[in-house]
């Protein structure tokens, strides 16, 4: 009788495990959709001024991921979310190993219009130009 009860417990547990492993959860799909919307919101061109010079960064979505690059640089850098809700991201440029924290700011109408970069103690604020 004890053997029969253990079989009765194991079968539903295995079914539950199979469902969790092989079928994506609704919340995961919702999170991906929310991430895609945020990526689309922040995608654009931003201009930064530093010591009299202008730096243009372009953020874009490719294959469902957010990327960024300098205007004339061929290297696409993946921008990874730190806190999507607060529009906080991070990136490491492979060619020089430099790590960046990136934040985007919405205006009163909800449109993303500013970008803030932090790297190695330097802080830069940029404005969206498109």
Question: What does the secondary structure layout of this molecule look like, with pairings?
Answer:
Layout: H1 2-22, H2 26-42, E1 44-50, E2 53-62, E3 65-70, E4 77-83, E5 88-92, E6 99-106, E7 112-119, E8 122-128
Antiparallel strand pairs: 1-2, 1-8, 2-3, 3-4, 4-5, 5-6, 6-7, 7-8
State the major sheet: 8 strands, antiparallel, barrel
CATH topology: Lipocalin
CA radius of gyration is 22 Å
Query: What distance separates the N and C termini?
Result: 72 Å
Structural class: alpha+beta
Question: Approximately how much beta-strand content do the residues carry?
Answer: 35-45%
User: What gross morphology would you assign?
Assistant: globular
Number of helices: 2
Let me know the average pLDDT: 86
CATH architecture: Beta Barrel
**Side-by-side strand order of the widest sheet:** 1-2-3-4-5-6-7-8
CATH class: Mainly Beta
Helical residue percent? 25-40%
Tally of separate domains: 1
Ranges with pLDDT <50 over ≥5 residues? 1-8, 10-21
The total beta strand count reads 8
String of helices and strands: HHEEEEEEEE
């Amino acid at each position: 009788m004890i053997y029969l009860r253990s079989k009765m417990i194991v079968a539903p547990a295995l079914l539950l495990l199979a469902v969790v492993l092989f079928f994506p959860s609704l919340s995961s799909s919702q999170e991906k959709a929310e991430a895609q919307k945020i990526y689309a919101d922040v995608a654009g061109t931003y201009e930064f001024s530093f010591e009299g010079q202008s730096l243009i960064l372009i953020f874009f979505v490719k294959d469902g991921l957010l990327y960024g690059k300098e205007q004339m640089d061929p290297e696409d850098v993946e921008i990874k979310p730190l806190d999507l809700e607060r529009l906080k991201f991070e990136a490491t440029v492979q060619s020089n190993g430099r790590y960046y924290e990136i934040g985007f700011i919405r205006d009163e109408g909800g449109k993303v219009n500013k970008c803030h970069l932090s790297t190695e103690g330097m802080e830069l604020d940029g404005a969206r130009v498109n």
